[in-house]
Amino acid sequence: xxxxxxxxxxxxxxxxxxxxxxxxxxxxxxxxxxxxxxxxxxxxxxxxxxxxxxxxxxxxxxxxxxxxxxxxxxxxxxxxxxxxxxxxxxxxxxxxxxxxxxxxxxxxxxxxxxxxxxxxxxxxxxxxxxxxxxxxxxxxxxxxxxxxxxxxxxxxxxxxxxxxxxxxxxxxxxxxxxxxxxxxxxxxxxxxxxxxxxxxxxxxxxxxxxxxxxxxxxxxxxxxxxxxxxxxxxxxxxxxxxxxxxxxxxxxxxxxxxxxxxxxxxxxxxx
Length: 271
Fold this sequence. Notes:
It is a single chain. This protein has a seven-stranded mixed β-sheet with strand order 5-4-3-6-7-9-8, with helices on both faces. A two-stranded antiparallel sheet has the order 1-2. The protein has eleven helices and nine strands. Strand 3 (109-113), helix 7 and strand 4 form a beta-alpha-beta unit. It has helices spanning 3-11, 16-27, 31-36, 44-58, 63-67, 91-101, 119-127, 140-153, 200-203, 211-220, 239-248; strands at 69-72, 75-78, 109-113, 132-137, 157-161, 173-178, 224-233, 252-258, 264-270. It starts with a helix and ends with a strand. The chain is an alpha/beta fold.
């Protein structure tokens, strides 16, 4: 089977872009090869790998898990079923954090709670190199992915294994960021394409979607320096509830920032 024939076969089963990405990875060819040399034969092992990936993608498995990597802010991060697939909406959390770090002196300390693959912590470490970055996750498997990404990208991050603030006793930070589990237990989005393959504990709190956010807000005062900021991502319908939690905890300058689609995405406040 040639490259062109393989691509035509896959397009009836999966999205066109997904088919192209999977074929390029399986065969080692480039997009230019597919356009200019579609008659090139596909070796049997590569064809077998490609057909297996297409079948798994057709069942809903994310392309990022099949390829073992995904892009975030122009960098390739290793991903596995132990961590969430990076989403472009999370770039807003990074951008808001960078804006606050820009007003901090060198050596400002920050921590990313529930770091997963490390996309937020590592992006902040690489784009604000004067900051001192830590990251926490409950899952040892997720931390293994994050540590590997830090090594691959040359990001200086200190990692802790534990539940939210538990491993941070006595530590205070100028900035706390988090992309916690915020999908309610019975939300139909949990059964969406690709989502059902992602780690359940990273998606939902198995409650109303605000349980982890409540914990993060409640514990922030004990770990923020005076004037420190807390920023966290949340669901499309959780902006008002997030602001109420922040205000009740004594935060000022409380806000909710929508993403590029106009959906409430990140809330935060200053202690």
